[in-house]
C-alpha cells in the first residue's frame, strides 16, 4: 500500500489486513520501489497523488522493469474530474478506483487481482455458534462457523456431510438467531491434508432478506470497527 496521507494509509492497510492479506506500507513511490526490490508483492495499491513521483509514474517504472512488470496494481484516483489527461489513464488498462472508495468495491478489486476465483461478498473470520439439521455443534471441540459472508459460511466440524447435500442452519450472532437453508459446496476431512481445517463450505439457498442484510451489516461492522472510512 503506497499512500502519502497517513489517515488513508492506515485505513486502507487495516482494511486489507482484515480482508486477510498481509500488508506492507510506504509513504512515497521511492520508498515503495526500494521495498519492491527486496520482496515482490502480489499487488500494489497506490494513490495517484504522491510526492516526487505520482502513482502513474510509479507504475511506468514497474512496467519498464522485466522483474516487476507483471505485478498486479490498483490505482486510487482522487474524487472529481482531474481533466482530459486522465481519460488516457482510465483507458490505459489500469485497475482503477476513485476515492472515496466503497468498502465492497475495494474488496472486489483486490479479489479480482489476487484470487483465481474472486469472491463478490466480503467474508470475515469469526467463531459463531451454529446448529446443523437441528443438532447444535460441539463448541467445546471448536465446532462453529469460522467464516461468514452474506452468501454463506464455512463451518468447522468433525461430522462429515456430503457435497451438494441440503442442510438446515441456525446461526447465532449476538442476541439474534438467523435461520437459513444451505447447500454444501465442498467438505474437508480432518485427515485429508496437514493443517487443513476440517469442515464444510455452505452456500445459503434460502434466507430471509432481512437476515441476509443483518449478516452483511455484521460483516461490514467487523471489518470497519475502529476505522474512519472516508478516504481523501
Q: Would you give an account of this structure?
A:
With 232 residues, the chain is α+β, with helices and mostly antiparallel strands. It folds into two domains: 109 residues, Rossmann fold (3-Layer(aba) Sandwich); 101 residues, Thrombin, subunit H (Beta Barrel), CATH 2.40.10. Helices cover 29% and strands 28% of the residues. The protein contains six helices and eleven strands. It has an eight-stranded antiparallel sheet, with helices on one face. Strands 1-2-3 form a three-stranded parallel sheet, sandwiched between helices. The chain is elongated. The model has no long low-confidence stretch (mean pLDDT 90).
Descriptive key words:
6 helices; Thrombin, subunit H; 11 strands; Rossmann fold; three-stranded parallel β-sheet
Shape estimate: elongated
Q: How many strand units?
A: 11
Give unreliable regions as ranges.
none
CATH architecture of the largest domain: 3-Layer(aba) Sandwich
> In sequence order, what are the helices and strands, one letter per element?
HHEHEHEHEEEEEEEEH
Taken together, the total number of domains comes to: 2
Assembly context of the chains = single chain
Give the number of helices: 6
Strand content: 25-35%
Give the rounded overall mean pLDDT.
90
Amino acid at each position: 500500500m503506497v499512500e502519502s496521507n497517513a489517515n488513508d494509509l492506515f485505513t486502507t492497510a487495516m482494511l486489507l489486513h482484515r480482508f486477510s492479506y498481509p500488508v506492507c506500507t510506504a509513504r512515497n513511490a521511492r520508498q515503495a520501489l526500494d521495498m519492491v526490490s527486496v520482496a515482490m508483492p502480489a499487488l500494489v495499491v497506490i494513490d495517484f497523488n504522491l510526492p516526487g513521483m505520482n502513482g502513474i509514474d510509479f507504475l511506468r517504472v514497474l512496467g519498464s522493469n522485466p522483474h516487476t512488470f507483471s505485478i498486479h496494481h490498483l490505482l486510487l484516483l482522487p474524487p472529481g474530474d482531474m481533466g482530459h489527461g486522465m481519460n488516457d489513464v482510465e483507458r490505459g488498462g489500469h485497475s482503477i478506483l476513485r476515492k472515496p472508495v466503497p468498502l465492497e468495491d475495494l474488496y472486489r478489486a483486490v479479489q479480482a487481482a489476487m484470487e483465481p476465483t474472486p469472491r463478490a461478498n466480503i467474508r470475515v473470520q469469526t467463531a459463531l455458534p451454529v446448529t446443523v439439521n437441528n443438532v447444535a455443534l460441539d463448541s467445546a471441540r471448536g465446532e462453529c462457523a469460522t467464516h461468514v459472508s452474506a452468501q454463506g459460511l464455512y463451518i468447522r466440524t468433525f461430522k462429515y456431510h456430503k457435497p451438494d447435500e441440503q442442510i438446515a442452519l441456525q446461526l447465532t450472532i449476538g442476541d439474534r438467531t438467523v435461520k437459513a437453508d444451505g447447500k454444501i459446496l465442498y467438505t474437508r476431512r480432518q485427515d485429508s491434508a496437514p493443517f487443513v481445517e476440517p469442515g464444510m463450505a455452505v452456500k445459503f439457498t434460502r434466507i430471509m432478506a432481512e437476515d441476509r442484510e443483518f449478516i452483511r451489516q455484521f460483516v461490514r461492522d467487523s471489518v470497519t470497527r475502529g476505522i474512519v472510512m472516508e478516504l481523501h
